[in-house]
Automatic annotation (TrEMBL):
This is CutA1 divalent ion tolerance protein. Gene3D superfamilies: 3.30.70.120. It comes from Beijerinckia indica subsp. indica (strain ATCC 9039 / DSM 1715 / NCIMB 8712). GO terms for biological process: response to metal ion. It holds the Pfam family CutA1. One of its GO terms (molecular function) is copper ion binding. Belongs to the CutA family.
Length: 107
């Protein structure tokens, strides 16, 4: 099913499980995300002019694209990082039943 980018995947990373769960719970409870998946990852990045290597948690948040600004604001209000990764990837296609579920599970 083509969606004309009505849906999106928002990604953010957290340094600990408590912060990741707090963000995931809030997004789903507030109906800003239909689902948030938390996966362990290893990140390499430049911060304060040095290459860093950390174990982090990656959150995949399934949202309606129109809710992006509210999702970003919610993540920023709960996040422990000074400059958290918050990026949106448009979902251009998906299983019709799954996309309908995202609609029904969000506001």
């Amino acid at each position: 099913m083509s969606t004309d980018a009505a849906f999106a995947l928002v990604m953010t990373t957290c340094g600990g499980a408590e912060n990741a769960r707090r963000i995931a719970q809030a997004l789903v409870e507030d109906r800003l995300a239909a689902c948030v998946q938390i996966l362990p990852i290893e990140s390499f990045y430049r911060w304060e002019d040095a290459v860093q290597n950390d174990q982090e948690l990656l959150l995949f948040c399934k949202i309606k694209r129109d809710d992006y600004a509210d999702v970003e604001a919610a993540i920023l209000s709960l996040h422990e990082y000074v400059t958290p990764e918050i990026v949106e990837i448009d979902i251009s296609q998906g299983a019709p039943a799954y996309l309908a579920w995202i609609t029904s599970a969000t506001r």
